[in-house]
Model the fold of this input.
Amino acid sequence: MLASHKTKFTADSIEKKPGDEFKFACATYQLDSEGTDRHGDISILEYHEKSINVLSVLDVGGVLDLWWRDENQLFGACASGELRVVQTDKDCVLNETRAAKLSDGILLAVDGCSDSVVTSDTLGSISSIEPDSLKIKTSINSAHGAQGWGAEVWGLALDRHDTNLVYSGGDDCLLKIHDLRTPHTVATSKYHTMGVCCISPDPISPYQIVSGSYDENVVHWDTRNFRQPLRTVSVGGGVWRIKRNHDNTHLLIAGMHSGFHVVDMEKFVVTQTYTGHESLAYGADWLSQGFVATCSFYDNLVSVWHSGV
Done:
């Protein structure tokens, strides 16, 4: 560990700030002792000279996922069911600009591109959002779960080559492909044996995605054949988050109970494991020059370390 920082609430998500080498956003989400009120915030942190400095903090009542639309505009999937948009100024001070109530449940994930945003929730639904107005363009209800019962949609990702395509992973153990132009699921994989938590589409090669699950497996797919994966690697803990480095040569894995792992994409093997956190490994992202930022839940810990890449 090169540097560490303790958050006020339990930490769950980290996203590198575009255009900055060592600045990143961190989200927190925590229930009070009675389990009724939700608390949390978004902070902008910077790794500098072996320390983590807090540049700004904004209380937003609990955030489960983050996505940067550009260098200054950050979207947060909130426990209130709201999608919140915050802006950073030249000093990285956060200010909330707009919010929209999208779900009666908890928003679990957010992803997007410049002109389209997708969210998922605890009720099994996926929504496509217009990023400026925050109006719902398309909703897929019961994307996961049986009729009348929605399974949490933990994993969500927009395809990088065709933004009509959305990948989702649910607590029903299913990995799915959806086309936002039609209500019908395009393809479904039953390969994972436990809930699917995260999906990472390849930004360079079409039809290539990587999925992660509570079953501890990181799985490489060609989406034209969902019957059999290309490659798999086990990381010994539930796979909560997958992040690709800038060169698309390595994956950074948040392995919940097993720590954080670096996977070589060419050989599809774990090349480094980091166990400097004492709680659930949840948030992770690549910084510059092989450095990474990670966070864990119950110990409120943010760390920066080197991946060896």
Observations:
- The chain has no helices and 30 strands.
- The radius of gyration is 18 Å.
- The chain has a mean pLDDT of 96.
- The first strand starts at residue 3 and ends at 6.
